[in-house]
Design a protein that fits this description.
GO cellular component, one term: TAT protein transport complex
Strand content: under 5%
Order of helices and strands: HHEHHHEHHHHHEE
Helix content: 55-70%
Strand order of the largest sheet: 1-2
Membrane topology: Multi-pass membrane protein
Number of strands: 4
Radius of gyration: 35 Å
Structural class: mainly alpha
Organism: Streptomyces lydicamycinicus
Subcellular location: Cell membrane; Membrane
Number of helices: 10
Family: Belongs to the TatC family.
């Protein structure tokens, strides 16, 4: 079932039929899902520790004290589980999110392995760099979401009137945490995608740089839609690092274009664009006289016509 399409006879240009591409995609997806599920099962055994690790900073930031009730000096909140099946559903969500985050190097490598046959041999050497940079970027975005959540929760809970009580439904709370972790992690992969397209010859650094206004606007809109809390603080904390990483990716792309142009002056040309030709005429040197022979050897003693020209078979030798 998992027989790889790569074990067939390879095309020197990396071409594969559609059925082989679909079979290869299936195999890569199955390997990624298998890695995620193995880590998810392991995370279920440590569910209690993971749940406390996720909710700990938020509870420390906005949690209510367990001391006897008295006048509160600031708003607080408690995390509660609503319903009989809520603890089991939450365990699945927390474990699955843990599996996706920890298995990042595996599914990133499978993604690269699926795209690699379409690249040239000298471009495949960037595989380790792609995986080596993609995993830290995803984990960095996930950690940023984890670090921002207590500040965001504190800002939102602070809007609660003093005579109200806050209860965080655990399932809703973990939905927010899961969404923020995945969105922040995937958003941090945008610069890596731009660099990958540049190294593959799809986009140039100057073209990516010319989009900077639309990219900044798009990142801001994306941050506003992606953050589940919708507050400006969380939106800014998501948008600012992505903008910085975007300009960092532009710098890498421009450097790569310059390096590629030094090695090949025609590297910036498209496949259907002709290279520049030098049409400057060269100087003509001294003309060397060449003696011409006006008749064939066998005509040297041939018959002469009326005009004295040699003829053969009734025709002039010049015809």
């Amino acid at each position: 079932m998992l027989k790889s399409a790569r074990k067939q006879e390879k095309d020197p240009e990396g071409r594969m039929p559609l059925a082989a591409h679909l079979r290869e995609l299936r195999n890569r997806l199955l390997k990624s899902v298998l890695a995620i599920m193995v880590i998810t099962v392991i995370a279920m055994w440590q569910y209690d520790a993971i749940a406390h690790f996720v909710t700990g900073p938020v509870i420390e930031s906005v949690g209510c004290s367990k001391e006897p009730s008295g006048p509160r000096t600031h708003p607080c909140a408690q995390v509660v589980a609503n319903g009989l099946l809520a603890p089991f559903t939450i365990m699945l969500k927390v474990s699955l999110t843990t599996g996706v985050v920890i298995a990042t190097p595996v599914w990133l490598y499978q993604l690269w392995a699926f795209l690699a046959p379409g690249l040239h041999r000298h471009e495949k050497k960037y595989a380790l760099g792609f995986v080596g940079a993609g995993a830290p970027l995803f984990l960095g975005g996930a950690y940023l979401a984890y670090a921002v959540l207590p500040t965001t929760a504190g800002a939102l809970v602070g809007l609660t009137p003093s005579d109200w009580a806050n209860f965080f439904p655990a399932d809703e709370f973990f939905d927010i945490v899961t969404r923020m972790v995945l969105v922040f992690g995937l958003a941090f992969e945008l610069p890596l995608l731009l660099v990958l397209l540049n190294f593959g010859g799809v986009l140039t650094g100057s073209r990516i740089l010319s989009w900077w206004r639309f990219m900044v606007l798009g990142i801001t809109v994306f941050a506003a839609l992606a953050t589940p809390t919708g507050d400006p603080l969380t939106m800014g904390l998501l948008a600012a690092p992505i903008v910085v990483l975007y300009f960092g990716a532009v710098g890498i792309c421009l450097f790569n274009d310059r390096r590629r142009k030094l090695g090949n002056p025609d590297a910036g040309l498209s496949d259907d664009e002709a290279s520049e030709l030098d049409l400057t005429p060269d100087e003509v040197g001294e003309i060397e006289p060449v003696a011409s022979r006006r008749m064939l050897p066998e005509q040297a003693s041939g018959e002469a016509g009326e005009n004295g020209a040699g003829r053969r078979g009734g025709y002039d030798d010049f015809t």
